[in-house]
Amino acid sequence: MSVMPAAFLDRDRAYSLLRDLVISGEFAPDEPLSERSLSSRLALGRTPIREALKALAKDGLLTIHPMRGTFLRQMSFDDLREIHELRLALEGMAAYLAATRGPTEPLRQCAGELRSIQSCENLDVEEAQQVGWAFHDELFRATGNGRLAQSYDNLRAQSGLALQKMRQYSVERTRQAVSEHLDIYAAIEAHDPDAAQQRMWRHLSSAFEARLTALGAIRTQYPGQGDHHA
Hints:
By secondary structure, this protein is mainly α.
């Protein structure tokens, strides 16, 4: 049986420890922290710390400033929760308004692509995520409400990790997300605003739980209204 080299074990341990500290909010926003201080704090060499920081930056959890030898925390668990609540409000309203107007041609095209993806035996996670994001974009355009669409664009531009595509998504979760998008579309096509809104809330809550699980955060129930947190 092959044994994983110690260097890989140290790097993975450093990643796990740092990720938990970042998500817990223990590092304050814009707090500069150096590899040297973290190496001492976690009793690990600077090389595994450096590799873990690079991985965390790729995941969107940190912003690195190489010339200064420091990094800044970008997202905490509370940040993710607040952005999730904003998405529930914005996208729930978008689904409601789109259903009152009916689907646009671009939204129909997205639904057609999602059906094709759903029928594939070998689902492409990257392709499904791209079409899924396009569906959300077209949903806001279908509302005919420019201010609502701008609010969503602003949230995506400012939110970092919380609205990035997830490399960690499994095929099973991706299939579920595709099905959820199609359920939302069916309610829009049926001109059923309440169903569209409820299905959007359920989709976003499922996606949020999957994101937290992938990040290793503790799953928590969040207060809200309606049945979208069930």
